[in-house]
Amino acid sequence: MGRYILRRLFLMIPVMLGVTILIFTMLYLTPGDPAVTILGDNVPASEVEALREEMGLNDPYLVQLGNYLKKTVFEGDLGTSYINGRSVTEQLITRYPTTILLAILSILIGIAVAIPLGIVAATHQNQLVDTVSRLIALIGVSMPNFWQAMLLILIFSVNLKWLPATGFYGPVYWVLPAFTIGIHMASSVLRFTRSSMLETIRQDYIRTARAKGASEQKVIWGHALKNALIPVITVIGLRFGVALGGSIVVESVFSVPGLGKLMIDAVKSRDYPVIQGGVLLISLTFSIINLLVDILYAFIDPRIKSQYSGKRKKLAAKNQASQAVV
User: Fold this and answer.
1) pLDDT digits (tens, 9 = 90+) for 266-325
2) Which of 19, 41, 113, 187 lies in disulfide reach of 137, CB 3.0 to 4.6 Å?
3) Are 265 and 206 in contact (CB under 8 A)?
4) 13: how many CB neighbours lie within 10 A of its CB?
5) What are the angstrom distances between the C-alpha of 260 and each of 99, 116, 250?
6) CA 153/CA 130 separation, integer angstroms
7) 3-state DSSP call for residue 97?
8) How far apart are CA 71 and CA 179, in angstroms?
9) DSSP 87
10) Among residues 13, 1, 11, 29, which one has the least CA distance to residue 313?
11) Helices (H) and strands (E) in the chain — how many of each?
């Protein structure tokens, strides 16, 4: 298991390198001049050209890419903001906990709603609860995050005045943005939970458990759920990345001082170092979450854990045999 984790960690290196090159290339090809962004429009062309030369913007693409990779990978320096001159790393560290908190809250809401409802829908297929669940999932997937956020603000902030519309100063401020992302996530997880449970409860071992006299509750929660959770966990891990991406729009709507709001402001002002740093941080978080999901498989499914232990036992037996021959 430890060897597998190390291999996955090493595989993250080319992934992050590819993301770094991709985002740098996209921003390199984006129209606009960073020197003009820093100095403003009413500055003599000579000053703009001098700043471009100082920043290395007149160098060829490969030279600029090499310099950026050197600073980012080997020096750990994500640069400084074009707008306020602050360190990009410092700004990301300040905003990152807010975005992670929002993503975790939305995932907890999604899991709490989707998994029980998906199980009930699967065990009551084609009945009223199943129809209502599928309708809820369809509506949740179809609604864009920004439209859903504005709808929740109109209902719970403007009309009912139950919850604040903007800010992130305490638990009461977390409700609307977390529910906005969580409902969208719950819709996808609900559909996968229902389909996975439907496939699982039709297996032979489920019929055998029922034939032996096991209660329906034990059959569903003790036998079927564990096997049905494998694809559901995969979807939850993927939706975590979507939650990080979705928080960019949601944070802007609710004025949440997180990573998403920072990146939206950076896009508006063409603050390229902040955009690059934010994308790299989100990509790294997503890669780590995928690794944790793979590790979680071994604790849920004993068959996967036995594969790792079986390989370890075979390797130990092979080493013992080679030592015996010597």
Assistant:
1) 888 888 888 888 888 888 888 888 888 777 776 666 666 666 555 555 554 444 544 444
2) 187
3) no
4) 11
5) 7, 30, 8
6) 29
7) helix
8) 39
9) B
10) 1
11) 14, 0
